[in-house]
Amino acid sequence: xxxxxxxxxxxxxxxxxxxxxxxxxxxxxxxxxxxxxxxxxxxxxxxxxxxxxxxxxxxxxxxxxxxxxxxxxxxxxxxxxxxxxxxxxxxxxxxxxxxxxxxxxxxxxxxxxxxxxxxxxxxxxxxxxxxxxxxxxxxxxxxxxxxxxxxxxxxxxxxxxxxxxxx
Length: 167
Description:
Elements: E1 20-23, E2 28-32, E3 36-42, E4 46-52, E5 57-62, H1 78-91, E6 100-105, H2 121-136, E7 140-145, E8 151-156, E9 162-166
């Protein structure tokens, strides 16, 4: 990625237009009941964007690894990040039955597998996210996972619009 690439607007993506703007760092979760544009950059990491079209509430996570190391409880890990995201948006008024998901990331940016698996880290992250959504009964309505390139994602919490550019 060239210097400044992550800061350039996505072609065709509208500006935040009155929405708060948040940059989501790896290992974090952000949810909002006010219109918010959440931006993040992903490689092997995965972000799940959840929104409730009725309540106009949404949020995003950004996790690095599928499962905790040494029982550490942090949103850096997919199972914790998924739980925290669902809790955060339902606390703001979203209904579990109305939630819709968009999933991004999970690239094989280094092209290597993890010693404990035949899958590369990005695949493990994507599988965890998709499995968690399936278990919760939350439909994935859009997304882009896999491949070997990073992504920049902008997600609007109030209407569920997501813009993505490969890097």
